[in-house]
Design brief:
Elements: E1 20-23, E2 32-35, E3 39-49, E4 52-63, E5 65-70, H1 77-87, H2 93-96, H3 109-116, E6 119-124, E7 134-141, E8 144-149, E9 162-168, E10 171-174
Antiparallel strand pairs: 1-6, 2-5, 3-4, 5-9, 6-7, 7-10, 8-9
Amino acid sequence: MSGNTFWNDAKLEPKRKFRWMLYFAGAPQFIIKSVTKPSFQVQSTNHQFLQHTFHFPGRVTWQDVNLTLVDPVNPDATQALYNILKNSGYILPPDVIGQADAGYKTISKQKMVGSLGEFKIQQINAEGKASNQVIETWILNNPQITSVNFDGLDYSSDEALNIQIGVKYDWAVLNPDGDRDISGWNLFTPETTT
């Protein structure tokens, strides 16, 4: 029997759902309630030969990330998201009337990505971020807002308003500052120190 049993190691701890920070468009940390982590799908291509079917990996598609914010009075998250839309190139129809070149302007990827800035999710351990104990970092490259739901109003409820946001991105990078050569590793064997 191996001496490396998890119940004997007091340092072993799972990652926890409530230990994280999100950096998104300059939003203050206290208004961010939840976020989904990046995920991907790998397409599959079939090749048939006689009575056999063989499968080969195809393109990787990164799935949208969803986040939920609480909408405070100050800073006004609704106004901030509306400003991101306008800064991305969206022009209201009344603003186009009477202007020769305004009707040709549209939303652009460059402006949307520039308005959002860096999109980073950091998971921390029990010691917190101040002790430099970031255990996982995801960076989403070229993030773009795909949907915003400003919640609904209801006289029978006293809950805070939430804003649900969908974000599409080109690809995600895991632990960009801690890249390691993992060739030859059994990927699920804990890293050992010597």
